[in-house]
Write a structure and sequence with these properties.
Length: 92
């Protein structure tokens, strides 16, 4: 694992903790920092991290807390309660 990937993993944990504590703006800072590191190193965010973040407002999504997750016609639909955006992706 590269240093960039390790930093991204650490930021993933921090973003999750911040969101769990209701510190959504702080979770955004961690998500944005992780995205910048991923871009600079062209390594991308791990899928699990990518799908736990809102593409519209960068908040870390915690189902039951600031997000609602549904499965509809084989797709996962995630709604961010913080900004109202909805994301869909194939169920896998
Ligand atoms: Zn959002």
């Amino acid at each position: 694992m590269s240093i960039a990937e390790e930093r991204i993993e650490r930021l993933h944990g921090l973003a999750r903790e911040a969101a769990t504590e209701g510190e959504f703006d702080r979770s955004r800072e961690y998500v944005r920092l992780a995205r910048r590191i991923a871009e600079r190193n062209r390594c991308g965010l791990p899928k699990s991290f990518q799908r736990s973040t809102c593409d519209a407002c960068d908040v870390y999504l915690r189902p039951g807390q600031n997000a609602r997750v549904r499965v509809h016609r084989g797709r996962v639909i995630v709604r961010c309660h913080d900004c109202g955006a909805t994301e869909r992706y194939p169920f896998d």
